[in-house]
Amino acid sequence: MSIKEDIFKLIKNERSFLGDIGDYTIKISDSNNFEKENLIGIYKIRKYTAVKNRNQKLARKVDNLILGLENYSEDKLKFVSILNEKYYGVFYLSKLSDKVIGYLESEVDENGNIIT
User: What are the pLDDT digits (tens) for 61-76?
Assistant: First the structure.
C-alpha cells in the first residue's frame, strides 16, 4: 500500500462516508512544519470571524478543530487535503501520520468554489 492509500484509509476510518480513493485528489504535506500553536491562533481568528458573520455551523466546525489541536500533545502536525467534485476536506494528522487530530470539511459548488 502507498502512503496516500494508508493516509486515506486512516481518514476514511474517521469520516466513513468518503468513497473510493480514486474519486479524490489527495495532497500530503512533505513535512511536519505545521505548528500546533500557530494553527490554534489562526483557527481562533477564523472562529471569531465565523461568529461575527453569524455562521454558527462553521464556528462549531472550527471549534471542534481547535479542541482537537489543543488536546494534541506534540507540537508539529502533518497536513492533508482531499478534494473531489463536491467535497473538500483539510485534515491535520499526528506527525507520524497515524492519527487524525482534527479536520474541516466543506462542499464544493458546480463552479469548483469551496462553500463554507
Answer: 999 999 999 999 999 9
Alpha-carbon span 79 to 27, nearest angstrom: 8
Q: Answer positive or negative: Cα dihedral of 56, 90, 70, 16.
A: positive
- Is the whole model's pTM more than 0.85, yes or no? yes
Distance CA 84, CA 24 (A): 5
Q: What are phi and psi of 73, to 5 degrees?
A: -85, -20
- CA angle, 113 as apex, 82 and 104 as ends, to 5°? 40
In the chain, where are the structural domains located?
3-115
